[in-house]
Amino acid sequence: MKTGSLASAILICALFFAGSAFGQKEPQSDRSLSPYFFVKSDDPGLDQLPLKSTSAKVRIAGVIADVAVTQIYRNEGKRPLEALYVFPASTRAAVYGMTMTVGERTITAKIAKREDARREYEQAKQAGRTASLLEQQRPNVFQMNVANILPGDMIQVELTYTELLVPTDGIYEFSYPAVVGPRYSNQGNEEGKSSDGWIQNPYLHQGEASTYAFNLAVGLSAGLPLQDVASPSHRIKTSFGGPGFCSIELDPSETDGGNRDFILKYRLAGSRIQTGLLLWEGKEENFFLLMIQPPKRAAREAIPPREYIFIVDVSGSMHGFPLDTSKELLRDLIGHLSPRDRFNVLLFAGSSSIMSESSLPAVPENVNRAVALIDGQRGGGGTEMVPALRRILALPKQEGFSRTIVIATDGYVSVEATAFDLIRHNLGKANLFPFGIGSSVNRFLIEGMARAGMGEPHVVLNPQEAPEKAKKFRELIQSPALTGIRVDFEGFEAYDAEPPSIPDLMADRPIILFGKYRGRPQGNIHIRGRHGDELFQTVVRVGEAAQMEQHSALPYLWARHRIALLSDFNRLSPRDERTMEVTNLGLTYNLLTAYTSFVAVDTQVRLVNGRAVAIKQPLPLPQGVSDLAVGKGGMMMKTAAPASEALARRADKEGRCLQAGEESRPLALKSLEVPGGVNEKGVRVEVRNTLRSLNQACRSHLRQVPSGKEIRLVLEVGVDGRVKKVTVEGKPEWSGDFERCVNEKLAGLLFPSLANASAGKVVLTLVVT
């Protein structure tokens, strides 16, 4: 074997064991809210991939985007199905409509209280009617259920939403999230909320293409001449219909564009920002939206010394380019600190480690030490973010310094509310700037942490963006654009304005104010603030604002903003009256919320004396995310191996991962016994798919077992097709650690070919080769 190949093998081994070999024992995954890998059955009567395509048509008029998402489900099997599909949307999306088309019939969904919508859906499903249900699991994560898809059926579901586009540094950005990344959870089924069941979703392995088609088209009418139109995430085709209009489509080469967020950026000629006042006069209420561009940021000399704390996610889902990008980002940020600044670094996965118990001066010696610490990370383990935040928040604050916290993560966690609560209650006057790094980050977490910490959210899609993002961030935190902002209304009867107060502006982005008004649109709106050592003031004359058709989205946008604010407060201090207000807002403005859902039910009974099989649509892993994000046996791992232990691994002549002094003992399947009436061929395929990961994880426990030795494993399988427990038949003396390893790897795995069968046992006879 060549030296270069051996070195590559050693590196691969180090990366693998850093993420898995030293993980702490976890609860079995049949009791854990964890994602798992999809195992396809060869049962020809069951279509496990009912979602055939998803597409989006986007219309952008001025600063308002209107999006229609179409999902097509088709049952190409021989058994009726219920399809469950988890998908993302923008954190700013106001979902206001849904329709379902079955054959020639189109049913318009109605908005209802969540529990009422779910009850109506379940009743329709039991009655044999085709129905669809759209629920919000997170403000940026939705779940679509479609019941009673009969063999040969094609069901089309369309949902519509609107959102506001706010420019930063003169650049407008539209984001269309395409896939939900796997969420780490350390909760069991018993303790987890019923609304968190969506976390238990199947995923394809890294590099596997989406099983459904993805398409997107944008019609951009800016209202002013366009200067630049580009997508950093996808290859696109653009065609201009005039100086202010552009059509955008995906390039035909984008055959797997649904495994990452679609990002569209554009700039207006002369870097102009659409400032001013938008009005909409409704039948019962009138709405306004104010957008004012602030002055450029103040000189850095006016800003006090800073204390920077960098928190870096080094969990399994960050393995690869997200962690590599984090390293580049922090190397740049730390390397550009001034000697009068202080800083600290905390790394977290299943546990956390901190560079120093108090922040250090940003001198070359400390900067080099921090860079070396970050460079030694490979990515592995779970994402225990809350303990890391608690540890940072407990650090004493440096006197005379303004504290800034920077956190780099993909956000693949399910503890958003707890994180927001911690930040709001502990940060005080410090700013928090989260960097979402990855092709499909959890934007709800990233933007929510920024809102809670009075900072600005940032998303880095790929390594190429890191240097420019780091440069912009340095410029951002050096000096705020505007502080002490106050809005006054003169002769304009405004009410229910959101937000009630405007925080300091740390970026070149407009001031945004939503609200309602009574009477005629007249009078003035005064904006005042402090720009460095100078006062800032501007006046907007209400009577000069025009009303346009695209402004009809203002009620949805206002209500969505109000709902977000109430939900944030409700996480801090739950109150029935806030829950009721969010519910009423959803019902009044026809919006999807945590407490309201859309439900559509066909009037025809289409399934008689039958039962549909529930199928969870498998999702592709976001581009750049490795299998470590899902982890062993479908569980996300909790603890990364120390780098010194991981690097102690070596490779044999074939490049296989070994521990010093051990031989490779891979396992091969000799025979299989399944319960009566079960498709043995399907189970065999599923077993073989798991043997590869089983060999990698458990081979070290077989080093004392001679070649040719047979091992019989008994798998206890529940009626849902999940493995509940694995035992080694005969209990040899050496089998203890191996049996524990096998349980960690196999317990909780889903065998679709065993679903809906009577509970039983599967016996595997394996041979040590």
Note down, in words, how this protein is organized.
The chain is an alpha+beta fold and 769 residues long. The protein has 3 domains: 36-272 and 607-615, Immunoglobulin-like; 304-478, Rossmann fold (3-Layer(aba) Sandwich); 649-769, 2-Layer Sandwich (Fusion Protein Consisting Of Minor Coat Protein, Glycine Rich Linker, Tola, And A His Tag, Chain: A, Domain 2). It contains 13 helices and 39 strands. An 8-stranded mixed sheet has the order 6-5-10-3-2-13-16-15. Strands 20, 21, 22, 23, 24, 25 and 26 form a 7-stranded mixed sheet that branches. A 6-stranded mixed sheet has the order 7-32-8-9-4-33. A hairpin with a 2-residue loop joins β5 and β6. The longest helix has 19 residues, at 554-572. The radius of gyration is 28 Å and the shape is globular. 48% of the residues are buried. The model is unreliable at 1-32 and 632-664 (pLDDT under 50).
Number of helices: 13
Number of strands: 39
Main pleated-sheet profile = 8 strands, mixed
The N- and C-terminal alpha carbons lie at a distance of 22 Å
Mean pLDDT across the residues is: 78
Query: What's the shape?
Result: globular
Q: Could you tell me the radius of gyration in angstroms?
A: 28 Å
**What CATH architecture label of the largest domain applies?**
Sandwich
CATH topology of the largest domain: Immunoglobulin-like
Helix content: 10-25%
User: What is the oligomeric state here?
Assistant: single chain
What share of the residues does DSSP label as strand, in percent? 25-35%
What's this model, at a glance?
The protein is α+β, with helices and mostly antiparallel strands. Strand 8 and strand 9 (141-149) form a beta hairpin.
